[in-house]
Specification:
The complex is a heterodimer of chains A (about 230) and B (about 260).
Chain A: E1 3-16, E2 22-35, E3 39-43, H1 50-57, E4 65-72, E5 75-78, H2 84-93, E6 95-98, H3 110-120, H4 125-138, H5 155-167, E7 173-177, H6 185-200, E8 204-208, H7 212-218, E9 221-224
Parallel strand pairs in A: 3-8, 3-9, 6-7, 7-8
Antiparallel strand pairs in A: 1-2, 1-4, 4-5
Chain B: E1 6-15, E2 18-28, E3 33-37, H1 44-51, E4 59-66, E5 70-73, H2 79-88, E6 90-93, H3 107-117, H4 123-136, H5 153-165, E7 171-175, H6 183-200, E8 203-207, H7 211-217, E9 220-225, E10 228-234, H8 235-240, H9 245-252
Parallel strand pairs in B: 3-8, 3-9, 6-7, 7-8
Antiparallel strand pairs in B: 1-2, 1-4, 4-5, 9-10
Helix pairs in contact in B: 3-4, 3-5, 4-5
Classes of the chains: A alpha/beta (about 230), B alpha/beta (about 260).
Chain lengths: ~230, ~260
Amino acid sequence: MTPMIAVENLSKTFVLHLQGGARLPVFDHVSFEVGAGECLALVGPSGAGKSTLLRSLYGNYRPDGGSLSVRHDGAMVNLMTAEPRTVLALRRRSIGHVSQFLRVIPRVPTLDVVAEPAIALGEEPEAARRRAAAMLERLNIAPDLHALAPATFSGGEQQRVNVARGFLVDYPVLLLDEPTASLDNANRDIVVDLILEARGRGAAIVGIFHDEAVRARIADRNFDLTAFRAAA
Amino acid sequence: MSAPLLQVEALNQRFGRIEACRDIDFVMHPGEVIGIVGESGSGKTTLLKCLAGRQVPTSGRVLYDMRVKGPTDLYALSEPERRLLMRTDLGYVTQNPRDALRMGISAGGNVGERLMVNGARHYGAIRDTASDWLERVELDPGRIDDRPATYSGGMQQRLQIAKTLVVNPRLVFMDEPTGGLDVSVQARLLDLLRGLVRELGLSAVIVTHDLAVARLLADRLMVMRRGEVVEQGLTDQVLDDPHHPYTQLLVSSVLQP
């Protein structure tokens, strides 16, 4: 198996300097690999560090020890030592991320929020917007909402906008943080289909799925973080 | 990979006993937008002026990748060479547009003057370009002959941006570009800046004390305190997982509306 993601001996502790230097150990000695077309589900109770690990894989959080590499343009790149612009290039071309909550720029219309990653990759803006509209409609976001900024949308609508944005580009690596959490059954099934399609085309997926039925349909393996709890 | 646009090496700036900038080192590549954040008095503006060729540092080098010569220390250039570079390649946007605009001549004159200094002579073409730029920064071209004194603060700031960008600088420095504007005007200006940065692929260094502005515009952040860069990294890394005590204080001090 060619690894798309390789994590080795990864550890992360938050140090809260404003609270007397309190140390919050999250995980220690985490190692795993994920190959193309494989989906790994991170499991463990709330506070086990699942989101912290996922954010680290996106280069958002900075772990303290070990290494964390993602395949980019044919070579494994260690996100912990890569230059900022390299991390940005990975995010543009290689790693898609659907966060738990949509962080939107106020005043930017939904259609542009979704089309943006494709345009950043050089797709012609009109073509990208057409695909974005189709993706939004597949996720049951009605066309009359496309021109509005998603700030006032419901939680479930915002989550579907976030999913649409994350799936518009065929990233080789996908990181999914609770992509179905606030969705009704019909919309949940649509998102599951999107994830299965991505896995089918060879994406390496790491995700957090609290819904066991969803996890059973998508994940090839579970990775339980409980065992990697670092000592305080 | 392209060569760095700017390389800053061991830059120090002292004012008597005060160390305004201490041992600053960083490299900037074309197309990057770097934010400098920190409280007032931390040395942000002094650093910006040193980078922009406007303040001779006490020691250290600021190497700019010149079109012909390649990487050259700004302060090793002769005065006329540096002035030419600042007119053609380096843009500078001040917090107070009235410091940069000439209030006694028309809006179009303020923009067109830059082109004339760089050799443009055809009056009609200069006026067309100026009018075009007024439109790009969302100013009414019908007011091209009005003096900036008749413009609101937000409009003056947009005019300053037009005047800065009309010569197609490769690197733009901005000192609190949205400071002193009320929030709705600030929002429009931020949308405009964000659009221009993307559309023109600008390289920019932006000083701000507003972390939301930094998140919106900057790829990378440098956090300054007492003249030192205490933390740097990708903007979202620094803001979401701050490591330095001072950065943690900054991030936790922001009020959520």
